Amino acid sequence: MIPVLIAGLAVDTRSQPVVILKPLDDEVGRGRILPIWIGGLEAAAIVAGLNEVSPPRPLTLDLMRDVIQSLDAEVERIEVTRLEEGTFFAEITLDTPGGERVLDARPSDAIGLSLRTGTTIWVAEEVLDRAGIVMEQDVDEEAEVAAFSEFLEHVDPEDFQG
Fold first, then answer.
1. Has residue 117 got a pLDDT over 60?
2. pLDDT at 157
3. Is CATH 3.10.690.10 correct for 2-154?
4. Of the candidates 26, 35, 34, 63, which has an alpha carbon nearest to the alpha carbon of residue 48?
5. What span, in angstroms and rounded, lies between the C-alpha atoms of 137 and 4?
6. Are 49 and 64 in contact (CB under 8 A)?
7. What is the DSSP letter of 13?
8. pLDDT above 70 as % of the chain
9. Torsion angle of alpha carbons 62, 64, 66, 71, nearest 10°?
10. Separation CA 153–CA 59 (nearest Å)
11. What is the DSSP string of 62-111?
C-alpha cells in the first residue's frame, strides 16, 4: 500500500468529475497520478472537505463521521484496494470498542471521509501499476496541469477496464 494525497479535482471533456491522487513521496512533476472518476455530488462533498466547509446541517459524510465518533470508534485507515472491470473499490477500516471493522466503500465516499477525519489515504500498488499515469520528469506545475488536461480530453473511463 502506498500513501497518497489528493492532488486535485478536474472535469473531463464530458463534464465528469475526476479526483486525482498522487503518492506522498513523489515530487511535483514526477512519479504517478491516479485519476478516479466520481459523481458530481461526490465531487462536491470532496470539495467541501478540502475547503473545510461546515454546512449548517450535516452532509452525509459529516453524519458518517459523527456516527463513528458517537460510537467511540475512529477511522483508522482508508484504502483504495482494487480495480475490477473499470471500477475502483475501497475499504474503510474502523477501530471500534469491539475490535477492528473493515467496511466496503466507494472510493469517493472513503476519500471524502478521510478529509473529515484526517485519515491518510492508501492505494494498493497493483492499482497504481494498472491505472496510474506516469508524469514526465522535470516539468513545471503549469506544464503538468496542461498535460493532464490534455490527457483528460482524450481519455475515457473505459480505458481503465481490466
1. yes
2. 54
3. yes
4. 63
5. 19
6. no
7. T
8. 82
9. -170
10. 32
11. HHHHHHHHHTT-EEEEEEEEEEETTEEEEEEEEEETTEEEEEEE-HHHHH
Predicted confidence (pLDDT) at residue 150 exceeds the cutoff of 90: no
- Residue with the three cell numbers 491516479: 34
- Tell me the three cell numbers of residue 134: 506516469
User: Alpha-carbon distance 119 to 147, whole Å?
Assistant: 30
Torsion region of 47: left, alpha or beta (phi above 0 gives left; psi -120 to 50 gives alpha): alpha
For the chain, which residues make up each domain, given as ranges?
A: 2-154
Strand bridging mode 2-11 / 121-123: antiparallel
Inter-residue contact 19 to 43 (CB < 8 Å): yes
In this structure, which amino acid lies at residue 4?
V
